[in-house]
Design goal:
The complex is a heterodimer of chains A (about 120) and B (about 110).
Chain A: E1 3-6, E2 11-14, E3 19-21, E4 23-26, E5 32-38, E6 44-50, E7 56-59, E8 62-65, E9 75-77, E10 86-93, E11 106-107, E12 111-116
Chain B: E1 4-7, E2 10-13, E3 19-25, E4 32-37, E5 43-51, E6 54-57, E7 64-66, E8 76-78, E9 87-94, E10 102-104, E11 108-112
Parallel strand pairs in B: 2-11
Antiparallel strand pairs in B: 1-3, 3-8, 4-5, 4-9, 5-6, 7-8, 9-10, 9-11
Classes of the chains: A mainly beta (about 120), B mainly beta (about 110).
Amino acid sequence: GNSVTQMEGPVTLSEEAFLTINCTYTATGYPSLFWYVQYPGEGLQLLLKATKADDKGSNKGFEATYRKETTSFHLEKGSVQVSDSAVYFCALAPSNAGGTSYGKLTFGQGTILTVHP
Amino acid sequence: DGGITQSPKYLFRKEGQNVTLSCEQNLNHDAMYWYRQDPGQGLRLIYYSQIVNDFQKGDIAEGYSVSREKKESFPLTVTSAQKNPTAFYLCASRLAPNTGELFFGEGSRLTVL
C-alpha cells in the first residue's frame, strides 16, 4: 500500500536559519504530493503541492520538488521565522497518468518545527 | 465565508457513552472525510464519503459510525466499542476530483474520562 515517511522531529531552529524537512514516499503509479501545515490548536492547511515528477511547489517562501527517481518531496525554506513554528505533514494522493486524483490522502507522521527568536 | 465547521471543539465523555461530532461545510464539496490524529502518528482515515447517501470505511473504522444524509453534513459517532477514543478528530472536504487537495475544519478534541 501507499506510505509516507517524514524525518523525525522535533526540529528546533533559530530565526533566519535554513530549514529542510525530509519526506519520502512509497506508491504505485503517479501520486500527487502535498505539504500541509498545522498551527497550534487548528486544523491543517495546504502549504504547497506538486502533481507530477520534477514539479516544484512553492508558497510563503517554502518549496518542495517532486523527485520520482528518489521518491522524495523534501520541504525547504531559506530563512525561517518564529511564525513558521507549527507541525508539518507530508501527504500523497493516488492519481492516474492523467493526473486525476482520488483524494484519499495518506499522511506522514508529522514533524514539529519550533523557531526561536 | 465558506469553510468547514466542526463542533464541539472540546468534548468529554464517560466510558461506555456514545458521542457524535458534527461536521458542516458550505463549500459545496462532494467528498467529505474524517481523520483521527494522535501524537506522533500523523492522521489516520476513519471514514469517507464521495457522495450523499454513500460512505466507505477508512483504515481505522472499527468503533465509529457515520451518515451522509445531506451534502453539507457528515457527522461522526464515536461508539462505546471504540477502545481508545481519546484523540483529536479532523473533518475535511475535497475541492475537486482532480486535485486531491483537502480543506480541513479546526478539529474536535475528545477526552474519555
